[in-house]
Predict the 3D structure of the following.
Amino acid sequence: MTGEHRIDQGAERGIEHGDEHGAGVVARWVDDRLRVSKFADSVLNHVFPDNWSFLLGEIAMYCFVILVLTGVFLTFFFHAGSRDVVYSGSYGPLRGVHMSEAYDSTISLSFDVRAGLVVRQIHHWTALVFAAAVVAHLCRIFFTGAFRRPREINWIIGVTMLILVIFNGFAGYSLPDDLLSATGLRIGYSILLSIPFVGTWIASLFFGGPYPGTAVIGRLFIIHVLILPALIAVLLSIHLAIVWRQKHTQFPGAGRTEHNVTGLRLWPTYAAKSAGLFAGVVAVVSALGGLAQINPLWLYGPYRTGAVTTAAQPDWYMGWLEGSLRLFPAWRVHLFGHTISELFWPGVVVPGLTFALLYAWPFIEARVTHDRTDHELLDRPRTRPGRTAIGAGVLTFYLVLMGAGSQDIFAQHLDAPITTVNRTFQVLLFVAPIVVALLTWKLCHDLTARPPDDSEEPEPELEPGTPPELELEPARGAPPRG
Ligand code: HEM
């Protein structure tokens, strides 16, 4: 490429080359060779709607990044082995105790590796925030109808990621092989065993024999650090590519139609906001990891079958499953010479139905409402009382299950018999969702019947004199403009 040619291009764009310095010269040099400026232009000018609820997905995405970074650090020091060793590190109360290599290395990580404890705690806290952000993101998608045509594929990918996030959290939680986590793993083993016909095979293949065996920690390690993160990374890339391609939905408002996207350009405003959000997420999880103790597993001791204690709690995103196990009646069924154990219903059927319904929701709703058109404008939850009431009722169902996962703690604190607490939760499980759904439905109707509130912030006016960061962009399927 000649110098003359470069000057011509600059002249076309009204740029004086004499004014270019440093980064500008390098950028032009690269563009002369790769011709990427047009593509970069379209990327940097991509428009994102500006609404706080759209940040929930981004918080989840940034948590994933932090999990990978902190996880890489932990991997340098964690040994995924089941070999029996005698602890000889700096934590006095456990010195001389027999334990697995995995537990031994987690204690060393906590007490003998510089920054080990804080990174472990940041990793754990981030996993909890990650799952919470994913669920909150799912709720925003659900309650605003963002899952409707044409975004069903992203809903399906999202539900799959939610399942992977829960599994990966459970796998990570199980790795240290302490009394608490190995008890959780043992519950997982029993649930696998309860699957009719194939359960025994799956459990013994995965655990390499009867529980606990010596293979499972090594296998969970590969699943936790490689297989599931890689799957999440691939699905997340597809998820974001689809958001990019289909463009964002937006709330209704002045100047917003089914055929445009209003908001902030990626560069510089949205990028700056998003970078700020990333810094904020890092700050919050670092503060949590540095200040709030989490999973002090040196207090639990190594796993011994007979040493299981009460008041044992899983991480929050497993609470609903724990509650399901604790509340379900002990139904043991004998069918054609096979026994279906009592764990099968709460451990396999309840989560199976949960995720099957989640996957199917966009299609169920489209069928019931006969609405098969494309939607670029979101619903406000109050304008869809039926959907909002069902969502609130279903959320209540899972919140009651989560509460039931702590029934022993309730019994201790209330000084009540565990059977009374259980019975109360069983009644609440059916009554509370119906009450909440009815109240939500009524509230939505009352809100839509209310005359518009003058004190509500007015929607931004686009014309005339649109500020530079508020742009219109043709959306998918829009008639060509100009
Ligand atoms: C690892 C978990 C997930 C991450 C990191 C993630 C990330 C994101 C991000 C950054 C966006 C764009 C911003 C936004 O709308 O919030 C988005 C959009 C979207 N997500 Fe997710 N997501 C995840 C899980 C889910 C789940 C569980 C669902 C639903 C079941 C879901 C469904 C969607 C849909 C339908 C959109 C398009 C929304 C629109 O255009 O308004 N995602 N996701």
The two ends are 35 Å apart (CA to CA). Residues 1-15 have pLDDT under 50 and may be disordered.
